[in-house]
Automatic annotation (TrEMBL):
UniProt keyword annotation of Repeat present: yes
Residue ranges annotated for the EF-hand domain, each copy included: 577-612
UniProt source species: Brachionus calyciflorus
Assigned GO CC terms: axoneme; mitotic spindle
Pfam families in UniProt: DM10_dom, EF-hand_7
Name this polypeptide is given: Uncharacterized protein
Classification via InterPro entries: DM10_dom, EF-hand-dom_pair, EF_hand_dom, EFHC1/EFHC2/EFHB
Chief place where the protein resides: cytoplasm
GO molecular function list: alpha-tubulin binding; calcium ion binding
Record key words, sorted: Cell projection, Cilium, Cytoplasm, Cytoskeleton, Flagellum, Repeat
Domain DM10 residue range list: 88-193, 236-356, 417-521
Length: 643
């Protein structure tokens, strides 16, 4: 709209503008008429300029504050503060020293005594302190009391303007050297316009320094030469072992011979041992070079040495073999023989890695140095087992010219002595006359042998007794040269054992079998242990339901008398010799004092004194002693068996 001519129809009226009056510019201020410049124009638009008029500019030329207000009054002086208040507890501290001459002393000529000079600004007084030194023998502390120090004979005293670093201060005939000051003193002097000199160091007192050195802990440096005692203590029983070969094939009938070089770190000696093989055609002398210090060149001696009647010593030979002269692939010339090192043991490798930084220990495999590998010697073949005697006895005849008895595992014999696993078995056969035959299979743990006993049965037509002597039984299918024998893990309920072409099916077991299997669960299959538990009446493994699954054996007449005598002997061994002691043993089971005890009480008592627990023996005793209608035995009649 600004570019259009100001003609009717070309203007635009702003509806927001309502006030078109002229702004008031005349007013009063402090009782005076004062015009002011308008800030807003008609319509409320702010004016962009505010320029003084010519009249105002003329008035400003003649404007002087002093003509209107008068001259400026002087500033009020500060309140008077005395020096005792303004400089209260403000002290300048300087550090210095003075020298004291020492007479008639050959060890010292003067002493340096450090001091602290204090300057009190409140009254311009000074004070000198000597810093305490331990065991100095001199009175220390306050040297000069606090007062104004005289500067000269005219009665002038020292002022802070006379104090600066690097200056001498003469007080009562003593010359004090000012060396340093604290931070407050430096800042205060600089604020007063005084240039502070650079600080100096206080020299050390020769006497105090000599005494300090004498009281210090003395240290000694060990000799650079290797200490033999230390070498003996640290290197005792430490031997480096090198595997080397001596190539003598250049000479007639020469060959490549293996050797072992031992280097003893305790005294830097070495020995060379020859490695012998069977039938190598050489005398079995173990040591080629005895243990000694071997020189690198024994002929490098002076021509004046009389070798006719003198032996070489450390005076003539200085250079001996050291560990750094040996290494993988190196050649060591020992008394004119070149030994090539092709390998070393683990301790030697660790020694070279820790002490010499060697990390490459690859064995030497050069055929030009080590030669080709010889054909392996023929090994003796063990002939097949001929069936005479045991397999172990026959093998000893093949291994030794003079046969030796086979070695036994005595620890196994002692640990498993008198431990026998007993099983009840039935013969598996198609013959009618052998069906139903019962056997007792005993497995002896001390020597892994198996024995079979057949209890005699009346009117069976078979003579009972020992069926198989204790011996090791091989499993079917194993070869005679390397037989595999039956073990305790092969016997379990339901297993079929083939013993010398006779098959036996396990149908029962002793309680000790289950206990042994549970104690050695790692040797038995899980199925075997579960079958034993199921058979003995407790799946959980705690034999509570049946104390024992006994095996009834048909006994001959007179067997009970032998067993009675055995029971008496065991009771005597337990120091139970009279009927009253036996009666006291059984009375604790007769709680109601009726005079009768049960079969379980008798078995429990027999178990405690390790007596036989066969049910047929106990039943026979109960029959002869008599029992009541509840199946309990008469206690007094039962004790008579052992009187």
């Amino acid at each position: 709209m600004n570019g259009l001519p100001f003609l009717p129809g070309n203007n635009f009226r702003d509806p927001t503008k309502q006030n078109f009056h002229i702004t008031q510019t005349l007013g009063y201020k402090n009782g005076h008429r004062i015009p002011k410049h308008p800030e807003f124009g008609p319509g409320g638009d702010r004016l962009n300029f505010n320029q003084l008029s010519e009249t105002e500019l003329a008035l400003l030329e003649n404007y002087k504050p002093s003509l209107i207000y008068g001259r400026a009054k002087p500033e009020a002086p500060d309140n008077f503060v005395p020096a005792t208040v303004a400089y209260d507890k403000k002290v300048l501290r300087f550090f210095g020293y003075f020298k004291q001459t020492v007479h008639e002393s050959p060890s010292e000529f003067f002493r340096v005594r450090p001091v602290t000079i204090l300057y009190y600004l409140e009254d311009d007084s000074m004070q000198v302190f000597e810093d305490p030194v331990e065991n100095s023998g001199i009175p220390q502390g306050k040297l000069i009391r606090r007062h104004k120090f005289p500067k000269n004979d005219q009665g002038q005293t020292f002022s802070w303007k006379d104090l600066n670093l690097g200056q001498n201060l003469s007080i009562y005939g003593h010359t004090f050297r000012i060396c340093d000051c604290d931070e407050f003193t430096t800042k205060w002097l600089e604020s007063e316009g005084l240039i502070v000199n650079p600080p100096e160091s206080i020299p050390k007192d020769p006497y105090i320094e000599s005494r300090r050195k004498a009281s210090e802990l003395k240290t000694y440096k060990t000799k650079t030469d290797y200490d033999k005692l230390r070498q003996f203590i640290e290197m005792d029983r430490k031997v480096l072992r090198f595997y080397a070969v001596w190539d003598d094939r250049a000479n007639a009938f020469g060959e490549l011979r293996p050797f072992i070089i031992h280097y003893y770190l305790v005294d830097d000696t070495l020995e060379v041992r020859e490695v012998h093989k069977a039938n190598d055609g050489r005398d079995p002398f173990p040591v080629l070079i005895k243990r000694q210090k071997v020189p690198k060149n024994r002929y490098n001696v002076k021509s004046t040495f009389s070798s006719i009647y003198l032996e070489l010593s450390n005076e003539e030979i200085k250079d001996y073999f050291r560990p750094h002269d040996f290494g993988m692939g190196q050649v060591a010339n020992i008394y004119g023989r070149n030994f090539t090192i092709y390998d070393m043991d683990n301790f030697t490798k660790a020694f070279y890695y820790q002490n010499m930084g060697v990390s490459d220990f690859a064995p030497l495999r050069d055929e030009n140095v080590l030669g080709t590998k010889n054909q392996p010697y023929a090994k003796m073949e063990i002939p097949p087992y001929n069936g005479y005697g045991s397999l172990e006895d026959s093998l000893q005849n093949c291994l030794h010219l003079v046969p030796e008895p086979p070695k036994k595992d005595y620890i196994k014999l002692l640990e498993n002595q008198h431990k026998v696993l007993r099983y009840e078995a039935l013969m598996e056969t198609t013959r009618l006359e052998d069906q139903g035959r019962k056997f007792i299979i005993s497995y002896r743990l001390s020597d892994d042998s198996v024995g079979i006993y057949e209890p005699p049965m009346r009117n069976s037509g078979v003579i009972g007794g020992k069926f198989l002597e204790f011996s090791r039984v091989a499993r079917p299918g194993s070869t005679p040269d390397s037989p595999k024998f039956y073990g305790p893990q092969d016997f379990y309920i339901g297993a079929v054992i083939n013993i010398f072409k006779h098959k036996f099916r396990i149908v029962g077991a002793d309680l000790f079998v289950l206990k042994f299997a549970e104690e050695h669960a790692d040797q038995f299959p899980r199925e075997a242990i579960e079958s034993l538990r199921a058979h003995l009446g407790n799946i959980t493994g705690r034999v509570d339901a049946k104390e024992r699954n006994t095996i009834n054996i048909k006994r001959r007449p007179g067997d009970f008398d032998k067993i009675y005598n055995e029971i008496k002997n065991k009771l005597k061994a337990s120091r139970i010799t009279n009927a009253e002691e036996l009666r006291q043993m059984f009375l604790k089971y007769d709680t109601d004092r009726t005079g009768y005890i049960s079969k379980e009480n008798i078995k429990d008592l027999f178990r405690k004194v390790t007596l036989p627990l066969d049910d047929d023996i106990i039943d026979t005793m109960m029959m002869e002693a008599g029992s009541n209608e509840n199946g309990k035995i008469n206690l007094y009649n039962f004790v008579k068996f052992f009187e």
